[in-house]
Amino acid sequence: MLKRDNFHLRQEKIYTYLEDRKLEAVLLADLEGQRNKSLRYLCGHPRDALLFLFAGGSSTLLPWDVPPAEERASVDRIIPYTDYDRSIPDAVGGIIKERGMDLSSRVEISGRFFFPSVTELKQVLPEVEFICQDEGIDAFILNLRSVKDSEEISLMREAAHITNEIIDGIERLLSDKPGKITELELAFYIEAKAREMGAEGLGFETLVASPQRSFAVHTFPNYTTQTIGGRGISIVDFGVRFSGYTSDVTLSIIRKPLNQVQKKMIQAVEDVYDLALSLIAFGKKPSVIAQGVDEAFRERGFRMPHGLGHGIGLDAHEKPLLRSETQGKSEKAICDGMVFAIEPGLYHPEAGGIRLENDILFTEGKAEVLTDAHFIRLPV
Amino acid sequence: MLKRDNFHLRQEKIYTYLEDRKLEAVLLADLEGQRNKSLRYLCGHPRDALLFLFAGGSSTLLPWDVPPAEERASVDRIIPYTDYDRSIPDAVGGIIKERGMDLSSRVEISGRFFFPSVTELKQVLPEVEFICQDEGIDAFILNLRSVKDSEEISLMREAAHITNEIIDGIERLLSDKPGKITELELAFYIEAKAREMGAEGLGFETLVASPQRSFAVHTFPNYTTQTIGGRGISIVDFGVRFSGYTSDVTLSIIRKPLNQVQKKMIQAVEDVYDLALSLIAFGKKPSVIAQGVDEAFRERGFRMPHGLGHGIGLDAHEKPLLRSETQGKSEKAICDGMVFAIEPGLYHPEAGGIRLENDILFTEGKAEVLTDAHFIRLPV
Questions:
Q1: Which of A313, B50, B123, B296 has the fewest CB atoms within 10 Å, counting from its CB?
Q2: Closest Cα of chain B to A306: distance in Å?
């Protein structure tokens, strides 16, 4: 678990945010259907709670379940969310009244609240000025989260280390019994090994797609009882979550014979992956890197249906986003402490899909590839 | 997979909703961080898409990934979401312009859109009257979903059947090797058996909590490599998802010696579970049943930190909600076709937790218990 000190350091930055903007409080929630890992980032409590941070420097957590919060949360005060019947307006009203906020209080609510929920708060508490915006507190915290501190980096290195052991294991498994392992067995191997090595779990549900299912970016169902590693291209996409921080890698498994389309796709992804690595540099906008990659695919007659990559950390998808479409929008340039996955991929309804994804730590002005995902070529 | 006809039948109900309210369109989304199973309910496409239903009776799906949509979605038209750079305002603007909606069009957006996202739509498309409310289209669809049709019921019976086979297997496993099985092995046993029997996957991440971790309603991490079934009370909570529809059961595993608190908790949950079953009756408000249960716990000196139960179906938590707190709010009375889980439970920081959860189909005026979860008592 992270040291308590780090959580307080992060909370301090929010208190400064409040002061700068003359806000009385900010409110975040992590609830079913409305997840927000920034809550865990700020106080260590993993899920199912509201978190208030108040100007002047105090924090109140309203967890659904109190005992785990007492064990883990780095906050000044814990009040059971059930005291307010797990109702957002009741909880917010109760806390605001209890604090005796004056009538002109300004409270910022995370932009990850649903529209009707914020509308209701504004109606129920008309005296309070509620602010809820796209580029407000969430973007502020996501920008903090996009640059990892040294403790976060060591957690991500550990997630990468476990991931690499698993990659070796997958290669052994598939080489020992080519065409015999099922998608399900492979998915279980990944999760068991991760947990045995001390991971908290997976960062997201593993995807294992044998050649006839690999045409989808996110195959559905995520894995089945059919065998993996048959002729053509199979995809395995997984992440290991260590103390909250996830890795994210994709291997493609190649088994001959291949047709011309498959050969061209494989070559294109390999080339473009190398190009992407070479484009990563200090001070560069992530969208510019992504554009270089999209352009290279176009030159080869292909189009990638997803972004080049994304930050990883407490979320499997966070800032920085490496997507052409974000060009012109505000984005932070590549700098030390950023950790992100790059994942060039191509998909064809008949030929199947191919993707290569590794995790990059940008440190000391250079890209360090943390994970060892690669194409696994099985014997015919 | 469901027959296409059923999806059209459901879409028809939305077209009537549009006509009754003089709306031009409704918009739903199922996206990362903003899940909404009503999209799958209406068209069969499992995830990552926007869905428009237009007055007059036509539907347009904007899936992120087109090939799986072409395979599964029951809609009139498919447009890649990537054509609009996966941007909600761009997609909504594009679709509205393309349809040539007039300036006074009224469009209802699901209440599961974030506040800043709806605010942006209103700003970008000021001519359109956007409606986004708590008790609008979402509640309408959730009410439809709370009463299952015959096809849904047969899918849920199949999910329950697989669940019951797994419960038998868990009992055998734990009895054969008491104190030797790890939380992880048990979780994997559940998932492997489910998928081997044809389940799409799990309804939610399994919870397996040995006695020292069972004090939390939702133990964290969900399972570890420590052994299960030691002295005291362990909890196993899982659901099997069959063609999208999930079961939800909780077993408690009891191994002596027990202290007085544990004995009292076990007895209370057993008594109250029986009481809950006896309270379920046609025409009764779910909150009234939940209140009876809360009252019974109070009489025994306990307080349950969560609701009595919840509907199950495409979501693990849906309508009807069996919670005392919903009293006074609009709620549908118990009727034929409702499927819900009841899960009385108690938790104590030292004594651990105990919960018993089974799935109920209300049919022909009676509660039919679909699943066989029970307390598993291991030899000392």
A1: B123
A2: 8
Contacts of A322 in chain B (CB under 8 A): none
Q: Which residue has the tokens 């799409």?
A: B200
Distance CA(B297)–CA(B277), nearest Å, equals: 15
pTM of the predicted protein model: 0.89
Helices and strands (H and E) in chain A: how many:
10, 20
- Domains recognised in chain B with CATH numbers: 4-144 (3.40.350.10), 147-378 (3.90.230.10)
Please tell me whether the interface predicted TM-score (ipTM) of this complex is above 0.85.
yes
Tens digit of each residue's pLDDT (9 = 90 or more) over B348-373: 999 999 999 999 999 999 999 999 99
- Within 8 A by CB and 6+ apart from B274, the residues are none
Mean pLDDT of chain B: 94
Question: Residues of B numbered 160-199 whose beta carbons fall under 8 angstroms of chain A's beta carbons: which are they?
Answer: 184, 188, 191-192, 195-196
Write B3-9 long-range contacts (CB < 8 A, 24+): B3/B151, B4/B44, B4/B74, B6/B149, B6/B151, B7/B42, B7/B43, B7/B44, B7/B74, B8/B74
Helix (H) or strand (E) holding A49: strand A49-54
pLDDT for B65: 87
Q: Helices in chain A by DSSP H: which ranges?
A: 4-20, 38-43, 66-72, 88-99, 115-124, 137-146, 150-176, 183-196, 260-279, 286-299
- How distant is the Cα of A365 from the closest Cα of chain B, in angstroms? 31
DSSP B100: T
